[in-house]
Amino acid sequence: MTKKNALSTPARRRPRRRGRPSLLTSTVMDLLTRATAVGLTMTQAADAAGVGRSTFLRWMSRGEDVVEEQQHGKLDVNSPDPHAALYARVTRARAAAAVRTTGHIEEAARGVVVSETYRTWTDPVTGEHRSERRIRRRPGDWRASAWLMDRLDPNPKSLDELLDEEDARQRAREETPMERALASHLQDLAERLRQTLAQYEEEDGIKTPVVGRTGQDGQELSS
Fold first, then answer.
1. Helix (H, G, I), strand (E, B), or coil: what is residue 3?
2. Per residue in 192-212, pLDDT tens?
3. Are 143 and 102 in contact (CB under 8 A)?
4. What global pTM score does this model have?
5. Packing angle of the helix pair 143-150, 82-110 (nearest 10 deg)
């Protein structure tokens, strides 16, 4: 039996590694949509769906860019781009929540209908048939809806502002104790330097000493 030459046999190709699957699945999209539909903020919706807040905000930011640049501002819940579809669904869900809450406040302001009855009779003088509609209303408690409406982002921030705030919180969580101690030390050093320069300016009037200039003999030169 002869041994096959190892060089003559073609090398078996390794299977290509597929990219990391996207976390934006249809299930996650449904959870985010339902969470925002009941009036939760986007950060609260991310917590309810089990995704990172910054991740959700980035998805929404990408979707907004696609809607504005490629779809001319049109919200399409069936968009082939998953980020644009998510942005459309969440935006519509939040708008529907605002409409529903406003309707509750308007209904409460009119009062809840308890009963509605009709009465018909014949006028004994003219002989005409007449009818009367009687509605009994009970004042509703609008404070619950007003409380929810007040928390549907009365002063909404842009996605970039929300993303910057979330990134800042993320960096603060990842900051080590040494970095926090060093930052405090540098702030103290900067404050001491500012006070020293202010003192020199008061003593010299307009002149401010130049730090670090030395002559050939090593002595400091005055400006």
1. coil
2. 888 888 887 777 665 444 444
3. no
4. 0.53
5. 150
